[in-house]
Amino acid sequence: MTELRILLIGGGSGGHTYPLVAVARSLQNQASTKNIRLKLLMLGEGNFIKMAANESEIPYKRILAGKLRRYISIATFFDLFKIPLGFIQSLWYIFLFMPDAVFSKGGYGSVAPAIVARLFFIPVFVHESDSIPGLANKIIGNMASTVFLSFKTAERYFKSSKVIFSGNPTRVFREDINAAREYFDLHEVRPTILVLGGSQGAKIINETITSGLVVMAQKFNIIHQCGESQYPSVHSAVETILKEGAQQYSSPIKAYYRYYPYFNENQLNLAFSIADVIISRAGAAFLFEIAQLGKPAIIIPITQSSSNHQYMNAFEFSLFGGYLMEEANLNRESLLRELDILLNPEQYARISERIKTFATPLAANIISETIFKTLKI
Question: What CATH number is given to the structural domain containing 25?
């Protein structure tokens, strides 16, 4: 039996981690059909890749990674010391594992391992999720043998002979509404709004939800993933509302509003199952997962994202039925107005079907097949 070793690198944020899981599962499935003994190792920085590796039962090694920011920050000074240390760690782990190929999802934690892999003449494959690539993937793309893209608008940043339009690898979610109602304790049949602030949370979205909570809880079930760093402020705001409202409006909030710092994959699956409309940032990973499910969505891009890539992601998604709402136009009135439009039965089914056409369900398979083909397996 042929043995194959593949190193998966990424991390730093959920968007640089979740697609690694999808590709890992596709590699495992294809290896089993080809009678290949596949060994995987995840290498990267941050809690998200660590949790993803543990949930997927894939060995994981942490490395230090320094982030090169486009703005002045004291953190950049300290990160400069992490870069050489991360390079040495990458050199050691890659020497011990000696993979046949490296698949990179990008992010600042990927740069050192990708450079080390090329020093060992190991082929590197990189995936760019966004419509405008970040600095890390621009660097890695120059040394990669293949660059997979989610958006055609990103092609101009890479050598065209390397580019394959794969779409974005997404995790597979299976709808289980009954289990979702039990888990979230939301048994009344009413529209359910899922709010996704992304791995870092979204202060402006959280504030809009809490400011409109009294009205929203009268009409909807609300499941709110607010981000670990933002959770204390959301908790404080909700507690204040409950104390001030007494029985007048505290009861519907307690009955129909649920908030969490972070979702693991099972929790996200349940949240997706019960959601009728999704409010989300414009990270590519979430956009393609929303499209796969065909859920009408309000997308609120980060105003100051790198190269404005979130706005461009959201714009591309809006061409397929998603609603793009800029932060400057976001308030509880505009949000409630758009929710009513999306939940209109005459609009809902049409929008849902249109959003599904944005999905790329074969992306992970395209990537894994290309890796095996390049390695002549």
Answer: 3.40.50.2000
